[in-house]
Amino acid sequence: MERADLVALDKQYVWHPYTAMDEYIANTDPLVVVRAEGPYLHDADGTRYLDANGSWWVSTLGHRHPRLVRALTEQAGTFPHTSLAGVTHEPAARLAQELIALAPGAGREDVPAGERLSRVFYSDNGSTAVEVAIKMAAQYWAQNGRPRRTRFITLSGAFHGETIGSTSVGGVQLFRDIFGPLLFDVVHVPSPAEPEGWERAFARVEAALREHPDEIAAVILEPVIQGAAGMQVYAPGFVRAVREATRAVDTFLIADEVFTGLGRTGARFACDLAGVVPDLLCLAKALSGGLMPFAATLATERVFAGFGGGRERALYYGHSYCGNPLGAAVAREVLAVYRDEDVLGQVVRKAPKVKAAFERMAATIPGVKQPRAIGMVGAVDLGGGGYLARGGWRVYEAARRRGLYLRPLGDTVYVAPALNIPDAALDELLAGVEASLREVAAGRA
Ligand SMILES: *Cc1c(COP(=O)(O)O)cnc(C)c1O
């Protein structure tokens, strides 16, 4: 089919995510991907694009990694799907073992047995990984002597996904407001990434825990970097302080590592940067390397034990594709590739380059502010316009003319490429971002 015909078909039938469709249909010439490999996407018109955001943060090992493709096709040729209801299989069982062996706190003698992450619950995507954690926390307290613990403390700017539950614990007003009446009540505290420092946010967390110790089921946070808020980086000390404060009143900490998990920050988990073991840990995105929708929620032995006893105490939750063999087989291979290709070491080595590039952009391009970087993420802001601002989209257009796919978050321009992006491609990517920002800044001047 011709490219133009495909675009016409798309515009007639497809409703795109996070897209103002009138504007899209009238003005957008979408990328029409026909092939992808490593950090590159190929358009039907012959253009090759560097994928600056790893296809919405999932493609951490690049596109079409041969080992992942092989794991997927081998599993598909054996048995592509079974339920996990009274059934198990090697990919699900061994992946669980492997995740537990890598989880924050694994092997640490100072972590009491009940506080170790020891159980894996599978689902399909980041939103459901969070939904599972929310339900586990709420049900745990409901049937273990603290039935009034039904509220969650959440951070301003937080993003935890798309379901009503994960939207309820979100803190991006634009995504929440319209559903206001449908969302459950949470305690909002300021973001630890605000310029005043994390201490003010922490004081509010502590105060909320002190004021409502009988009501708080958990604090939920994206450790060390709030992704969708615009790549807002904050100090690991905040995560540590929240962990201590939740312990002091004996309530839970949920770490949403859907974005940060598996190396994005340079550590295996962002919780490791803080030396923190959460009660519940949510993983998706990188877990299946951009091949399959797949997610896991890790729970401590204490949380798990809270569901033992009578049948009425079980977690009545499960998706059709829970622990699906294709996703689990790919995830096992993802972990093997991380080990064999020293992916974390690669991130640590390349991260200073990302940081230096974004600092240089902010220092030398008029109107470019707030450089921040951690691991394989770098970002700057153009204005203070938030998610609906258009500044980032002008940079998107300029980048696209340079063969760079650079999806902004409003006025925030960021990169979150494959963690194993080759050095030459990373240089090209950073130079392309800089040139695009300069072009837009010159146009504005
Ligand atoms: C992307 C994201 C989610 C939602 O994951 P989906 O797979 O898109 O449902 C949840 N939490 C964080 C921190 C994320 O970045």
From TrEMBL:
InterPro entries reported in the protein's UniProt record: Aminotrans_3, Aminotrans_3_PPA_site, BioA, PyrdxlP-dep_Trfase, PyrdxlP-dep_Trfase_major, PyrdxlP-dep_Trfase_small
Residues the record marks as site: Participates in the substrate recognition with KAPA and in a stacking interaction with the adenine ring of SAM: 18
Reactions it catalyzes: (8S)-8-amino-7-oxononanoate + S-adenosyl-L-methionine = S-adenosyl-4-methylsulfanyl-2-oxobutanoate + (7R,8S)-7,8-diammoniononanoate
Record localization: Cytoplasm
Cofactor: pyridoxal 5'-phosphate
Binding residue positions for substrate: 56, 285, 318, 407
Pathway listed: Cofactor biosynthesis; biotin biosynthesis; 7,8-diaminononanoate from 8-amino-7-oxononanoate (SAM route): step 1/1
GO (cellular component) term, any one: cytoplasm
Assigned EC number: 2.6.1.62
Enzyme class: transferase
Modified sites of kind N6-(pyridoxal phosphate)lysine: 285
MF annotations from Gene Ontology: adenosylmethionine-8-amino-7-oxononanoate transaminase activity; pyridoxal phosphate binding
Family matches, as Pfam families: Aminotran_3 (PF00202)
Residues at which pyridoxal 5'-phosphate binds: 126-127, 256, 319-320
SUPFAM superfamilies registered for this protein in UniProt: PLP-dependent transferases
HAMAP family for the chain: BioA (MF_00834)
Subunit structure: Homodimer.
Function: Catalyzes the transfer of the alpha-amino group from S-adenosyl-L-methionine (SAM) to 7-keto-8-aminopelargonic acid (KAPA) to form 7,8-diaminopelargonic acid (DAPA). It is the only aminotransferase known to utilize SAM as an amino donor.
Protein name: Adenosylmethionine-8-amino-7-oxononanoate aminotransferase
Organism expressing this protein natively: Archangium gephyra
